[in-house]
Amino acid sequence: AGTRSNTTSIVDLTNTAAIDVTDASFDSNSHIDLDGTGDHFHTSTSCGITSDITLEAVFNEDGATAPHTTVICTDTGYQYGVKLMSYKNSNRYGLWLGFGSSNYFAEVSGTLNNDTFYHLVGSFDQSSGQVKMYLNGVLTGTINTGQTSAISLNNGHITIGADYHGLGNSYALN
Asked: Residue 118's beta-bridge partner residues?
């Protein structure tokens, strides 16, 4: 009837992980609407990230609701996982990496404007310790982290639209 409940899960295109949309809102066209109030969706099973990683997102932010907003992250815990983030208050973006007892943020300076679509990609090559950041298909920085160990995970779930430690209303994409 043109409506969809947000209490059911959707399945990813590879049919390997359920995606829980219980905490997402939907607009009048049945599109997921991340409005900065903690709306998010996440996998309910582990994605098993253990070495090299690339996170990619296309997003259009209305305005920052916190010092940084998390576009996509692993839903793990402090010092664990990986996050693709935008620092709207300082026009920076980057890839945060958690190694269990330490973390590293590969931050690149750039201009991010409200109400503009961006294609943001961050990749981590474990063997070299390098992070590469791309904005709209252009390599904007290669950063050596000095880290060649695997990213540490607690559960490996992926969350879109909010930070793992602030699923209520913290660091949420608007």
From this structure: 59
Residue type, 148: T
| pLDDT tens track for 148-164 | 988 888 777 888 887 76
- What gap in Å lies between CA 75 and CA 155, rounded to an integer? 7
The rounded distance, in Å, linking the Cα atoms of 159 and 42 is: 4
- Which of these, 42, 56, 147, lies nearest to 93 by C-alpha position? 56
Residue 144 token pair: 């050596």
Q: How confident is the model at residue 129 (pLDDT cuts 50, 70, 90)?
A: very high
Q: With contact defined as beta carbons under 8 Å apart, do 91 and 111 qualify? A: yes
This prediction has a pTM of: 0.80
Q: How far apart are CA 134 and CA 132, in angstroms?
A: 7
Question: Are 111 and 136 spatial neighbours (Cβ–Cβ below 8 Å)?
Answer: no
